[in-house]
Design brief:
This protein is mostly helical. It has one domain (13-70). 83% of the residues lie in helices and 0% in strands. α2 packs antiparallel against α3 (43-70). It starts with a helix and ends with a helix.
């Protein structure tokens, strides 16, 4: 797996990097869950996908707000 994109996001301040990379991670979960909602058939997994989308969006907002208030 290529990780050069991670270096391009790095600020080398661990708190900033953690928040930034968690936003990327959470967005990936949202993208995967959304794709499942469009193409999947299992009702239980669709419920889980919806829950993932709601929870990850909430976390992205919290992380983004933290970055706005605390970025160094």
């Amino acid at each position: 797996m290529r990780t050069s994109w991670i270096i391009s996001l790095a600020s080398f301040v661990s708190e900033n990097d953690f928040a930034t990379l968690m936003i990327v991670h959470h967005q990936s979960a949202i993208d995967n869950a959304s794709a499942y909602l469009h193409h999947g058939n299992n009702a239980q997994l669709k419920t889980m996908a919806n829950n993932i989308i709601m929870a990850q969006n909430k976390d992205i907002v919290e992380l983004s707000n933290w970055l706005l208030a605390n970025r160094r």
